[in-house]
Hints:
The structure holds two protein chains of two kinds.
Chain A: E1 2-4, H1 5-9, E2 12-13, H2 18-28, E3 31-38, E4 41-47, H3 58-68, E5 73-74, H4 76-82, E6 101-103, E7 108-116, H5 126-134, H6 142-154, E8 158-162, E9 171-175, E10 181-183, E11 189-191, E12 197-200, E13 205-208, E14 212-213, E15 226-233, H7 235-245, H8 250-257, H9 264-279, E16 288-291, E17 299-303, H10 304-311, H11 317-326, E18 330-335, E19 338-342, H12 353-364, E20 382-383, H13 385-399, E21 403-404, E22 410-411, E23 423-424, E24 435-436, H14 441-451, E25 456-466, E26 469-479, H15 497-510, E27 515-519, E28 526-536, E29 539-547, H16 549-555, E30 562-567, E31 590-599, H17 604-615, E32 619-628, E33 637-646, H18 655-670, E34 675-676
Parallel strand pairs in A: 6-9, 21-25
Antiparallel strand pairs in A: 1-4, 2-5, 3-4, 7-15, 7-16, 8-15, 9-12, 10-11, 12-13, 13-14, 17-19, 18-19, 22-24, 23-24, 25-26, 26-30, 27-28, 28-29, 29-30, 31-33, 31-34, 32-33
Chain B: H1 2-17, H2 21-32, H3 37-41, H4 53-89, H5 108-122, E1 126-127, E2 133-135, H6 136-139, E3 164-166, H7 173-180, E4 185-194, E5 206-217, H8 221-236, E6 241-246, E7 252-261, E8 271-279, H9 281-286, E9 294-302, H10 305-311, H11 324-327
Parallel strand pairs in B: 1-4
Antiparallel strand pairs in B: 2-3, 4-5, 5-9, 6-7, 7-8, 8-9
Amino acid sequence: MKLTYSMLRDYVDTSFNAEQIADKLTMTGFELEEITEVEGDKVLDINIMANRGDGASVIQLAREFLAKVPNATPTELFLRAEKRFPATDTGNRDIWSKTSAEIQTQTCTRFSCRIFENVQNGPSPEWLQLRLRQIGQRPISLLVDLTNYVMMETGQPLHSFDLDKLAGERIIVRNALDGEKLQTLDGTDHELHPHHMVIADAERAIALAGIMGGEDTEVSASTTRCLLESAHFVNTSIRRTRKELGLFTEASYRFERHVDPEGTTAALNRFAELYLEITNNSPVGGIVDVIATKPPLVQLTVFIKRASRLLGMEILLDQAESYLHRLGFAIVGKSPDSLEVVAPTWRSDILREEDLIEELGRVHGYELIPEELPIGSTPIGGPQGFEQLTDDIREAALRCGLDQCISHSLRDIHPLDAEGTRTQVRTPHSPEMAYLRNSILPSLCDAVRKNNAENIHIFEIGRVHNDETESTQLGIISSGSFESPTWRESDPTTADFFTLKGTIEQIAHAIQLPVSYRRTTTDLRFHPTRQARIIFGKSEVGIFGQIHPLVAEKTDLSPTAVMAEITLDPLKTEQTGVPTSKAISRNPAARRDIAILIKKEVPYAEIDQAIVKSGGETLENHWLFDVYEGKGVPDGQHSLAIALQFRKLGENFTDEEANSLRDKILAALESLGATLR
Amino acid sequence: MEQITHVQNDAIAAIQAAKSTEELRTVELDFLGKNGKLSALMKGIGALPNDQKPLFGAKINEAKNTVQSMLDARVQDLKVGELSKQFEAERIDITMPGRTPRYGREHVLQQTTNKIKRVLGSMGFVYKESPELEEFKYNFDALNYPPDHPAMDEQDTFYVTDDKVLRTQCTALQGRVFESTEPPLRVFTVGRTFRNEAVDRTHSHTFHQVDCFMIDRGISMAHLKGTLGVFAKAMFGDEVKVRFRPDFFPFVEPGVDYAISSPKLFNGRWVELGGAGLIHPNILEKYNVDSREFSGFAFGLGVERIPMMAYGVDDLRNFLENDQRFLAQFA
């Protein structure tokens, strides 16, 4: 809402300059958007809160300022505005013979109008044109300009009809007929339906109620008789119609928020007095004022101690009374610790005691609220349970040297999507953002391409939506070497199935869960013989492996890239382990290395199991340190070199003991078909 | 006796003439070794009269000691010289690049989130999460939105069905918590929110929010201001001040917009951070909390705003694009 410093000064006597006024308004909640200078005056653009439609008027902003600044004084004009611009022709019925109005719809609560005759609808006087230009409006003609100007002052939208063009010279507020046609002022043709509310004459719709007048009945230079409409409509009806027909006007802006249901005649009177001032002509005596629904009376009690307690600052009864009075509340009762008030009709936002408490706080000043910390029961804060587990997993991924990504959830279809039904938003922002991702992998794939990197090791933990279920997922893509090229000798390792497997194991270790795998071939995104399902504890959580070469081609990823997709939600039911401390032996270890020949189809997991089982408790550690096939190794077999490390607590291992354990392990391996190399 | 002096002088001359620790080693053997010249003099002791024997022995020992200490001193001198030659040969260019170990870079939004979690967690707020694809009733109805509120429009909110929306605010957690938890309670969340908005430098359809709230007996606007003060100081520095300005949100009454200022940041201007207020009594009553006994506060803010203000990031879009050139600046 734009207004000039002068427009405000018509209502308020103050030594404050425009910037100081804007500061005060900002601190009442009417925030200054910007302040500019136009044709010699300061123009304030004020942001109107969604529940304070009344604030879209000079009078209400003046009231807020006066409430906030006790040494500013209201002008004579403001005092008349408070009395709703009393007119001298009240009680005159001349107008009754000229027109009539009827309300046939529940969404119009009141319809008032005045009639002006012997009109000369020329240009407005310069002062009026200037003020309209300053607030960004185009002056058109006196009748149009005055409706706009009075709306700015009072917040009440007005419309001037050319009375001679109204069939029957009367008004009916009703719902549109099905298929009824109306051309609005902007030249647009509309086909209307019964859920649209219109102003009609005896024959046809002449305006979209509360939004815009019709082209046919518009006032023009030749207009000699004018009917000035000032009505009140229910906000939701206006909003729906406005949106449906794509019309946004100053009138609809106000009706959508809230317009004072009791303000129709005041605006007509303000118009009449300005019209008289400018043209020296008076309107036809009297007002047609049809009231269909009276606004409810909102009477509330505010307890001062409660107000002070909730605001965290002390407000005295007298202060409270003064604040509410200045805001237009009627004080109807008073006790030592409470006030009973009636809310002004323009304040549709006041519905209960807490709303009054806010008023007291606003005027008293939020800057006076001290800073205190809450006392009372304090729980143990921070993440717990699954949220903590998610944090631990993220930490572990970072420690494994993976860079973290955070990507959009809304995206398009992608070759790395998981199998399952995607969730689609009804009115997407764009086709590229129509779906919620059902896997983290497409996001990571985008990140790889974004960085155009050969060597990249990244992860993301985020929400995914698949088959109408939301879950938290960890995705990893790892590709290329782990070290950036340097002038020194670099680590030649590049990402493969086993580097990623090691990472997954570290992550499982970080949350104290055993990890196991299940052979699989069916996920089409992965290399069929290089993929495995991942099991943390007892829960199957996901899959990892090398990318399928055809998918790699489609996605521009390296065919050697490896990926993991781990859903964390099943871990909610896993009992994540607590580490148990074991005594550390101070005695030296004995190491024996063995090399075996064994058929390649014997899974290492079985060899591993046999070693652990036959090695017993004193086998402290063992590791595979070489795999060889080729010369000297029979076809279909490979040679595995395994280190065995034995240690006892409080006692040294003798050579004989070590050898005999080694032999025992070898015997176990022989039963798997291994031969000593 | 002159013999001793003579040999000692020879030894001293040899020590002085030696040019390396190796040559000194030879000198040492020549004079002080088992069969060295000084030791050999000892053999002549038998031929001396008994009364001269002790004197002669003492004299030899004295000579040996003198030679030994001179030799030791000379060895030290030469070693220093030789080491410095070695050091010169081993000189490296310390300006050559180091070998960077691989370490996982944390996303800047994660770093911010972690800091938020530390601060609010340490003040006793329990961290909770709720769905991003939220039920309409938690996103709007539970938060005292009147039916037909403009925020519910498809132009503003992403709908999946009539009952499911991508949450437009993390405040949607509140109804879920109030449904299952009796006050007193302190809870916060950090999460992703969605609005059907055009994307530019300062707007996005997807961004992150903090929502923090508590209910207890006697909670006031002063507690809200105090908590926000501590939070803002922890995030932006000790000199930060908090200011309240009246504003409207359906789920708080009174509602405020809070701004912070600091002499070190934003040229001392007030910068708006988010919305806050006392939890609307309609909401408390909806969840059977007696609004005469209990009151609560809530505040929210955008996560992206924090690094934007603290580090001068000027384009919101950077945060979800995963450009390593951007992210590597922060970790």
